[in-house]
Design a protein that fits this description.
With 202 residues, the protein is an all-alpha fold. The protein has helices spanning 8-30, 33-40, 44-50, 54-64, 66-77, 87-100, 106-118, 122-125, 127-146, 154-168, 172-177, 187-201.
């Protein structure tokens, strides 16, 4: 039975935690507020109290994690010389480290980003355009400085390919089905090498 014993901020965060997981599993269109309320163990009316619509709740899930993108930009802007021999490695670190260091259930957020980015209806919600594209453009400009002279479209496509690799790395269950080791300590090192080599030699 749903309970509202927690305080206001706690209940709101509990709703956001549940929404992040359910949206990641079912997608925006496949998720109902009733299902989120069940997972959060709150009354459906409480979701309406905190969020005026499903889209408002969905957007709030991403806004709550926006500190990750802010940290990525902070690290990118801290790179002193984008012409340096190791500039690419620094750019890749700025791009992936704040994401892979997410604590707790951060894998749900990474799955959600992958699902939203791949959803043809994504532009209707405006999440990518508002919260991710401004950051993406700055990383693309940095790549142009670190790797000059690439063909038209290289930087934009490679950025998107890197996003795919980064978000896909949250799926440990898939690697297990292929005979790999879930949660292997070297996963992030392999991911870093993969993205860096793809950019440098692509």
């Amino acid at each position: 039975m749903a309970t509202d014993a927690a305080t206001g901020p706690d209940r709101r965060n509990r709703i956001l935690d549940a929404a992040e997981r359910v949206f990641a599993e079912e997608g925006y269109h496949g998720t109902t507020l009733r299902e989120i309320a069940k997972v959060a163990d709150v009354k459906l009316s409480l979701i309406g109290y905190h969020f005026e619509s499903k889209l408002a709740l969905y957007t709030a899930v991403f806004v709550r994690r926006q500190h990750v993108n802010e940290e990525r930009l902070r690290r990118l802007e801290a790179i002193e010389n984008l012409d340096a021999p190791d500039a690419l490695e620094q750019i890749v670190s700025a791009f992936m480290d704040p994401v892979v260091s997410l604590q707790g259930d951060g894998s749900w957020y990474r799955r959600l980003v992958l699902r939203e980015a791949a959803d043809p209806s994504s532009p209707e919600r405006g999440v990518m355009g508002a919260l991710f594209d401004p950051m993406a453009r700055k990383f693309i400009e940095a790549l142009k400085c670190a790797l000059p002279g690439k063909a038209r479209g290289f930087y934009e496509w490679c950025y998107l390919f890197a996003v795919g690799a980064l978000t896909q790395s949250a799926f440990d269950d898939r690697i297990a089905s292929l005979g790999g080791v879930p949660g292997a300590a070297e996963k992030n090192d392999l991911l870093r090498s993969f993205i860096t080599a793809a950019l440098r030699y692509g």
